[in-house]
Amino acid sequence: MQMPLKYDAGQVETKWYNYWMAHNYFHSEPDEREPYTIVIPPPNVTGVLHMGHMLNNTIQDVLIRRARLQGKNACWVPGTDHASIATEAKVVAKLKEQGIDKNSLSREAFLKHAWDWTHEYGGVILEQLKKLGCSCDWDRTKFTMDDDMNEAVIKVFVDLYNKGLIYRGYRMVNWDPEAKTTLSDEEVIYEEKQGNLYYLKYKIEGSNDTLTIATTRPETIFGDTAICINPNDERFAHLRGKKAIVPICNRVIPIIEDAYVDMAFGTGCLKVTPAHDENDKVLGDKHNLEVIDIFNDNATLNSFGLHYQGKDRFVVRKEITQELDENGFLVKTETHVNKVGTSERTKAVIEPRLSDQWFLKMENLVKPAINAVLGDAPEIKLFPKKFENTYRHWMENIRDWNISRQLLWGQQIPAYYYGNGKNDFVVAETKEAALQLAKQKTNNQQLTTHDLKQDTDALDTWFSSWLWPMSVFDGIRHPENKDIKYYYPTNDLVTGPDILFFWVARMIIAGYEYRGEKPFNNVYLTGLVRDKQRRKMSKSLGNSPDALKLIEEYSADGVRVGLLLSSAAGNDLMFDEALCQQGKGFGNKIWNAYRLVDGWEIDQNIPQPQANKTAIAWYQSKFQKALLEIDDQFSKYRLSDALMAIYKLIYDDFCGWLLEMVKPAYQKPIDAVTYKAIIAIFEDNLKIVHPFMPFLTEDIWHYIAERSPEEALIIAKWPEAKPINDSLIAEFEFASEVISGIRNIRKEKNIPFKDALAFSVINYEKAPHSFDAIIEKLGHLETIAYVENAVEGALTFRVKSNEYFIPLKGSIDVEAEIKKLTDELTYTEGFLKSVQKKLSNERFVAGAPEHVLTNERNKEADALAKIETLKTSLASLK
547-724 is classed in which CATH architecture? Predict the structure, then answer.
């Protein structure tokens, strides 16, 4: 088959991906082979491919393709996450465009719109992953809202509730006023922001006295139900037992005492707003204070806000500050930096809010997961190891998990209310099962399903994804099925450190709770993709390139290589498109290397030259040494280093040296033995490159020979380990320096390669003659003569102690060369004198730092060596 002059990535990528899919190479079923399993971190169903996805999924594909080549039963399960908050926001926005208010729809009607949106737009990212070359088992694609996945989540909720681990509680929670739902503590990001500290004056009831408090949130005065002072603060002893009047709303509130108050902060007086601050709620419970919630669910003020009702909290902050100032209540304002909680999803500022929510007790559940990673004999390894400290901090300071969300899109909490009391509910997997429980609990056999009302909240999205490694194999509903028993625990998890707690830790917790074992063996934590200015890539900054356009410009293989060349585990990747160009260039190098080999004429009758036999034996040992390094780097999840070892092996050793060593002379044939060996080597090269560059390698593989589907590269065999001839490798390293010395002289003296050179060597090193024929060929020498004494009239160079001579009379303008060398000698001798003058200065030697003296002595030694070489070269020309 004729090989094209240029590699057409677009055509090749479509061709081979379709071929792989048509022959079902990605699909896995349990068999007698060793399984190798990866479950994809499910991207949001709303998502599109970005640089983080590109990096993460390239790494997973490299691991899965290598496992396939190693003969393992490779299974990479893809899927998407229903992403409650993000998806509901998208659907609400689309409804708004159509003039439909979400609140006007029933749950069923809204969910129909959500499913319509999901079917139309969801899963785009999975199709985009195919463009990258991802070899997922698409037949196993899962979605966290699939019926079987839903059933597993509900089953787990009921089980945990029956174990007494899930409870309903009235707690201060993190409220996202944009998504209008509660968030877990882990979904709140705290950022330092500059704001103001407002000093407000409160009147004391029945007197002309006042007290001043400092607050960052003047809009919350409508929720004040007390002023608190420290009982040890004598400044306010006169206020004990008295009452204060809240500005504007004129509500009378008690002045209480509690050691919680920091006497050094602000004025030492604290306004207490139990409905809107977690610490204030603790004070309120302790002192039996009234609780006044002043906010609507969208963070506008409700009727307690008087004339500010319906206005946004930040608008009110600005307006009420002016009103307080105009009425003499604002004493002063100071700039103040404090930590502000924002929603991880919507970026809205979080509002602390009292609410009835569902919680999962974590204290005992977490213990096996801590031991699995941090115990004396850890079962799960984190790469890089530094993340163990982060894991420890989170897990040892864990709080109960708020698992309910005020959303419609998601698994509906399986709690059914049969009465008006807070505790008049049962928890069951189905409404029918709930009815039987309700009848037992109430001893009322007249109840029907119409009397039951299901909780309207949905479960936190993470409550479904924490079951992912089990639920994708139906291990929750059917814990003894063949898939879960074969594929679980999975092998490697590749994800970002930002969800180490959200997802990774929780999957470990669930694994031990529901299967009594780890969900995976290793966790490879990638870094973040940043731009050259070290900024995190984001749409808002406009610094994130279009992933599909990168693939179009540089090829999928080029982008994969570009991403991985600078992506050490756990370290952020400074993305530069030049890396993708380098990846594309590497692909072109391999392509052109095969075009060169494919163009050789083969002669079955020519005996194999000894030089070719030596060159092939050298490369085979070099390959085996690199293979050991590559396998070692893979075991440490240092894929960047593994790729670089492959890159150097093929670019430098194979293309740069081996092909040059065995290449036949112009218009001459090559012997069949050498050609066959080069093809075998080329095939081994393609195997180790394939996980990183699947399309190019598969294409060349089929140009080398007509192959049946059973012989495709994707399912070929990873190269076997063979003995290494370290002596031959060392001999070549020596020989390559000799060849480089000859080439340098040719370049410096402008001697064309067509002119053969005489060459002599004093072999002080007793170097073997294994590579002499190769030195002759690559240096284009007439012969190599081993001599006892220096050759007159020749230029020289050294490799270690060996001295090499190239007679140049007749090849160059001797007079011009003598002048050039003389000028260089004069300059170097002058430089030496200046250095020696410094070193003979006692004051300089006594006062200079040691590293300065060392530097000067090195200059002296280098100058002396150069002078000796220049004098020898001059002597040979005279």
Answer: Orthogonal Bundle (1.10)
